[in-house]
Amino acid sequence: MDNILETVVNSKKIGIAGHVRPDGDCVGSCIALYNYLTTHCKGKEVTVYLEKIPDTFMFLKNIDKIKTTYDDNEIYDTFISLDCGSLDRLGPAERYFTEAKMNINIDHHISNTFFAKENHVLPDSSSTCEVLYGIFENEKIDEAVAEALYMGIAHDTGVFKHSNTTKHTMMVAGSLMEKGIPFSKLIDETFYQKTYVQNQVLGRCLLESILVLDGRCIVSTVSKKVIDFYGAKSEDLDGVIDQLRITKGVEAAVFAYEVDKDIYKVSMRSNGLVNVSKIATYFNGGGHIRAAGCTMMGNVYDVINNITHHIEAQLEYNRVHNDNSETNLES
């Protein structure tokens, strides 16, 4: 952390970027770092790059400062990657990262490839926002920074219900609440509240879901044709996988949606006995033991059969070894 702070202090031109298809933790960490640096490190040029931000996050202070276009001539003293498990997840900002005089990787994914000159990766943290909280000086965290950090933590923990929520996570959240943020409103409007279209798509995905592997895995898919019919965007599908996961009796949930002809974005969740990060990494994705994802090519049957084959193998391993604990998940 000392190296990170020293690098930032000695840099005049700083770039920040998160992963493609930014989620709550990605957006929260990028905006939190931008607001912190521009408030407390005067005289520095700070730029944030992200893909299109979901509308629910537009309330964050300085969200309008995010750039979605890229200038080929930009070179940065320091470029910081946030919430990215691998270099390719930076999308078009990858060039800025590799060409910067110094680059820093701040993350919490267990699948992180440590791709920077300076890596600060804490897999035991709930979120990148929680990692940033440990870097920031607490007395310098104002309401705007606290709001962004809290939102990121809330989103990556499923509002503090996922297994990545720790005692420390709750202490951090409590400290951020003390900054005066409207935490209840923030959670309702960015996590629970759904549009009519989102409810329609969710209903259809649940209606057409199926149980496989003797009821231990639930699967749902949606084609691009159906997504286009509802006029839905990728962020409108965010809540589907978590609703599938809480189906009684299942150990794993899989949701795949078509983003282009025979190209599927796959999300996976585990309730304890399946390491979905291991599966996602096999298919060039990544994430956490209980929440991970990847992009796969092929028809929908091939995608689901390949994913469920790996889930079945892990469940069979547990059965043969009579292991119903989570102790083997990282092996």
Automatic annotation (TrEMBL):
<dbReference type="Pfam" id="PF02272">
    <property type="entry name" value="DHHA1"/>
</dbReference>
<dbReference type="GO" id="GO:0003676">
    <property type="term" value="F:nucleic acid binding"/>
</dbReference>
<protein>
    <submittedName>
        <fullName>Phosphoesterase RecJ-like protein</fullName>
    </submittedName>
</protein>
<dbReference type="InterPro" id="IPR038763">
    <property type="entry name" value="DHH_sf"/>
</dbReference>
<feature type="domain" description="DHHA1">
    <location>
        <begin position="222"/>
        <end position="313"/>
    </location>
</feature>
<feature type="domain" description="DDH">
    <location>
        <begin position="13"/>
        <end position="153"/>
    </location>
</feature>
<dbReference type="Pfam" id="PF01368">
    <property type="entry name" value="DHH"/>
</dbReference>
<dbReference type="InterPro" id="IPR003156">
    <property type="entry name" value="DHHA1_dom"/>
</dbReference>
<dbReference type="InterPro" id="IPR051319">
    <property type="entry name" value="Oligoribo/pAp-PDE_c-di-AMP_PDE"/>
</dbReference>
<dbReference type="InterPro" id="IPR001667">
    <property type="entry name" value="DDH_dom"/>
</dbReference>
